[in-house]
Amino acid sequence: MMTAFVSISIPVIYFALFQLVDQRLQQDIAEEIGELHTDLAVAQPQNSTELRTFFREYLQAERMEVDQFLVVIFDRQFFDARPNDLPPSLAPGSQLMNIWQQIEQPSQNRLSVADPEVEGVVYVAEPIRLQGQQLGVFVVVHLVADEREETVAAVQVVLKAMILLLLVASLIAWIASGKILKPLRSMATAARNISETDLSKRIQVEGNGELADVAQTFNEMMDRLQSSFVSQRNFINDASHELRTPITIIRGHLELLGDDPKEQSEVLAIVDDELDRMSRFVNDMLLLVKAGQPDFVQLETVNLAELTEELYLKAKAIVKCDCRLDRKASGTIQIDRQRLTQAMMNLVVNANQHTPGDGLIALGSVKDNDTVRFWVRDTGIGIDAEDQQRIFKRFARAKHNSGRTEGAGLGLAIVQAIVTALNGKVSVVSSPGQGSTFALIFPREPAQ
Question: What is the pTM of this model?
Answer without folding.
Answer: 0.46
